[in-house]
Amino acid sequence: MAYPEPLPLGTPIFASTVLAGSVAFVTGGGTGLGKAMATELARSGASIAIASRKPEHLAAGVAAIEAVGAKAIAVAVDVRDPEAISAAFDEVEQRLGAVDILINNAAGNFPQPAEDMSPGGWRAVTDIVLDGTFFCSTEFARRRIAIGGGGCILNIAATYSWTGGPGTAHSAAAKAGVVNLTQSLAVEWAPHGIRVNGLAPGLFPHEDMPAHMQHDKLAADARDRTVPAGRVGRLHELGWAATFMCSPFASYISGHTLVCDGANWLRRSLRMPEFVDVRTQFGLGTTEE
Ligand code: NAP
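# NAP complex -> structure
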């Protein structure tokens, strides 16, 4: 038996008064999981700044928020560029008010055996995921500390933060750094009333996923059977988790990375299946060749 379907999309986790007056800056908020999290925050009353690079993503994010009756703006920013981040926060402050919720969701990723990875490929991922999270977090915190406003940061991690990620070593290492950074910053910024948490999604397929990340896409029912819960996650389930972590109901939670994955990362087999090396999995011959 699979987990039952969640309450339908459109069911708010909280009343729209709970985050009323809050302004959330969501990096990568125009696609996939970022858009879903931004939408659920908006349902609970937050105004949203969608922050990423591509105009079509920015427009899609703003449209999704406006469709649920909330206020949204788009800010073009590359999270690898600290000056651009500062300018983006200025713009959001002027147009929506001071940002009190930051979701570090922007990421890049591509599967490749580590020995084939170029320095540029490594940096493309770690710069966005780890450096981008640090740059946005420090920009946010400096502003919150200056006005004594407190606030909340949610860093989007992945369960290979704890296990390693054979085939995506750059992303796994960067996400491990993000979980560790979450713990450091939670302690450093607690005296300023800033909570810093993480959220590690499991399998949440969506149509915005780039083709190169869908290389192992299975038929939906086969994909569901790869998860102990018997199904993949629905995007709004992750949105509810994010909204809870950013809400006053999580007021004593900080430094924690919440896993939302239908128990997938904990599964083991009594008899381990035969080991298949990464090159074979990618169809690139075997490690012995
Ligand atoms: P996605 O659709 O590929 O979204 C990535 C977003 O990041 C895009 O909106 C992109 O927007 C933005 N972005 C990339 N580089 C950027 C940069 N340099 N500056 C600013 N924005 C940038 O990914 P997703 O599947 O929704 O994943 C969202 C998060 O969840 C990521 O952190 C990912 O690692 C994590 N995650 C996802 C899954 C899953 O099943 N989908 C599982 C585990 C973890 P622009 O192109 O417009 O810049």
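# post-check
Strands lie at 23-27, 47-52, 72-76, 101-104, 151-156, 194-201, 257-260.
The longest helix spans residues 119-147.
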